[in-house]
């Protein structure tokens, strides 16, 4: 096997399946039955780190009035996060995982991108900005996001440095952070945005989980945000 093939397998996470200690065969082939799992946030947000009054829960839907993130007070490692989201037109949001510093989260975490891929505003966006990819780092395998105003389902599985993303029943991301040893270039040769100044390979695999708020002026809604630890 050539070194090039080894790198491709490492980065894509396709070398072999994994079985978690809880018995799940990874990557998941479909969205899990997560109704009985732990809620990531309580309805009164008592377990959240967020500015008062910006994030609210109404009729089971979590949303923000400003471009401010909400984070868990707990830190997580080896987990499956299952959620639904709905975007306003031209929305640009994300699910933040492995965050080691909520005060400076952008270079110290991984962001699973949420984007209105259908919006003309984002027609010229880089491929690694598209919905379901790792923002600035990986291109989703296919466009699986739904149009603004429709509910989407996303399942993110994190096992060590390996990250899988299911979006509306499609496996759009399988990535191993070990492959990202540069803060300037992705393994496929594309540029990494300069504000993502730490290589993924150097990031912790335990941290806070966050949701990005009303980024770019477009609303974002989340519901049924559930988590299951798998170690």
Report what the structure shows.
This protein has one domain: Jelly Rolls (Sandwich), CATH 2.60.120. About 5% of the residues lie in helices and about 35% in strands. It has 1 helix and 15 strands, in the order αβββββββββββββββ. The chain has one helix at about 5-10; strands at about 20, 25, 40, 50, 55-60, 60-65, 70, 80-85, 90-100, 110-115, 150-160, 160-165, 170-175, 210, 220-230. The strands form 3 sheets. Strands 3, 5, 6, 8, 11, 12, 13 and 15 form an 8-stranded antiparallel beta sheet that branches. Strands 4-7-14-9-10 form a 5-stranded antiparallel beta sheet, with no helix packed on it. The two termini are about 30 Å apart.
Q: How many distinct folded domains?
A: 1
* Percent strand: 25-35%
Give the overall form: globular
Please provide the count of β strands. 15
Q: Which features characterize this protein?
A:
mainly beta; Jelly Rolls; 231 residues; disordered N terminus; five-stranded antiparallel sheet; globular; 1 helix; eight-stranded antiparallel sheet
Walk me through the topology.
Elements: H1 3-12, E1 18-19, E2 25-26, E3 38-39, E4 48-49, E5 55-58, E6 61-64, E7 70-72, E8 79-87, E9 92-99, E10 110-115, E11 151-159, E12 162-167, E13 170-176, E14 208-211, E15 220-229
Antiparallel strand pairs: 1-2, 3-15, 4-7, 5-6, 6-15, 7-14, 8-11, 8-15, 9-10, 9-14, 11-12, 12-13
Quick rundown:
This protein has one domain: Exo-inulinase, domain 1 (Jelly Rolls), CATH 2.60.120. With 231 residues, it is mainly beta.
